[in-house]
């Protein structure tokens, strides 16, 4: 299918925009920790059922040790750690700003490729990074955003942590997807690792029961279920298809468009002040992220 990877990347952005709204609304009702655990639990059930239908087993037991290791590490970093701080950012600064900070993921991906894969990082790439940072700074430090979000600095730092977690998770996923491995199987392994890590942590800290109480709040549970279907299930599957079928730069750029989808949602849905500086700053950040992979 022509442009399968590019189409999957666009669908990824749409899914991530929708699930960020769902998780923001649910988090305001039951807290970010409950959202993170419950959505992985629901996502695991959905993925295991899908895997059973497609491959005849509820889990890819024959993935191989190396592949399991890379994908499990990717899930631990991306789902258990990266998304934990991202969901807290949703509560502190809202879905729009938090997802804009995720535009830093291509920047971190380029830096990781430079460090880990020894890929070249020249002046033009550094300039593209600077443009991305300038666009984000223009939006984040606008007067309206400071007034609307009293915990802006903390939320920004958490959002940056979410972007870094996504970049590291995607890097490790590339190793797990080698040889044309199924994105559905890969995602199930990633979600399983993230779920086990979170469940173990909450059990150790005696917060497992309270965290699962989010299922008792029906509106929150419905939002988490929709977010789980569009985020850890469809969104991540689309993202894995994108990085497997399209050039990494094109895929990363198209997967960064969620902040654009969220501008009208923030304005009309969350009643946020979305001025000219927010629109232009978002466009500047996305332009820098796109240029990063084409220079």
Automatic annotation (TrEMBL):
Domain EamA residues, every copy: 5-140, 154-293
Transmembrane segments: 42-61, 68-87, 93-116, 123-141, 153-175, 187-204, 224-243, 250-270, 276-294
Pfam families on file: EamA
Keywords: Membrane, Transmembrane, Transmembrane helix
Record keyword GTP-binding present: no
Stated name of the protein: EamA domain-containing protein
Species lineage: Bacteria, Pseudomonadati, Acidobacteriota, Holophagae, Holophagales
